[in-house]
Amino acid sequence: MRSSVRLAAWVVVWSVGVTGMSGTAMVSAQTPPVPSCSRPTRPPPSPTTPPSQVIDCSWLAVDAATKTATFQLIAGLTGLNGALNFNGFRDGGLTLTVPLGWTVVMHFKNNDGVLPHSAEVIPDAKPLPLGPVDPAFERAFTVKLMQGLQAREEDDLRFVANRMGSFLIFCAVPGHGAAGMWIRMAVSDTVSRPGLSATPAERS
Ligand SMILES: [Cu+2]
């Protein structure tokens, strides 16, 4: 008799314990909201997996009234490719698309504390030039094309995208572009707004 009471008491305690546990498990982990506009992240460097760059929507400002696309062109934003990158992209991995006839303003800034860099918009042709060439649009180049701008130096490119086609935004410091320091610019008569998109990188 005494032992059966003890057993019953044990069963009650045991079932309360199980109920308490399952009650705790019912509290589900909260899902973080997905941002609509991602800031670039800098994951810790790893020898096996290179960090993937996120497009920052603040890089491109669109003024539909004046048909002006303003693009923040940042040389050496990250350490990718020995900092031979624009906005953390190399070998055509980022494409700026502009409607035909729009004005393009590129605020060039060198974020690389070590190497000088420059930029010009050139025709899409292979092999890639080893240094400065004639730009594809009038005034579509920074000062100091050959020697490059030093760390924190800035310059503006301003031109009208007055012909369609595929172009490269290219660092003209000798050897940089050919080593992968270029992204793409497309001028199209089928888009109504400028845009930025990640595109397949072509290892040169
Ligand atoms: Cu460069």
Tell me what you see in this structure.
With 204 residues, the protein is an alpha+beta fold. The protein has a domain at 64-198: Immunoglobulin-like (Sandwich). Helix content is 12%, strand content 26%. It contains one helix and nine strands; from the N terminus they run αβββββββββ. It has one helix at residues 2-25, and strands at residues 60-63, 68-75, 94-99, 103-110, 120-123, 154-160, 165-170, 182-188, 195-198. The strands form two sheets. Strands 5-7-8-3-9 form a five-stranded mixed beta sheet, with no helix packed on it. A hairpin with a 4-residue loop joins strand 1 (60-63) and strand 2 (68-75). 32% of the residues are buried. The site of copper (II) ion has 8 residues, from loops.
* Shape assignment: globular
Q: What's the architecture of the domain at 64-198, going by CATH?
A: Sandwich
| Low-confidence segments | 1-29, 31-41
Through-space gap between termini:
87 Å
Helical/strand content category: alpha+beta
From the alpha carbons, calculate the radius of gyration and give it in angstroms: 27 Å
Helix content: 10-25%
Strand and helix order: HEEEEEEEEE
Largest sheet: 5 strands, mixed
Number of helices: 1
Assess the beta-strand content as a share of residues. Answer: 25-35%
Task: Kindly report the spatial arrangement of strands forming the biggest sheet.
Answer: 5-7-8-3-9
What ions, cofactors and ligands are bound? copper (II) ion
CATH structural class of the domain at 64-198: Mainly Beta
- Output the CATH homologous superfamily of the domain at 64-198: Cupredoxins -  blue copper proteins
Reported by name, the CATH topology of the domain at 64-198 is Immunoglobulin-like
Q: How many strands in all? A: 9
Q: Give the rounded overall mean pLDDT.
A: 83
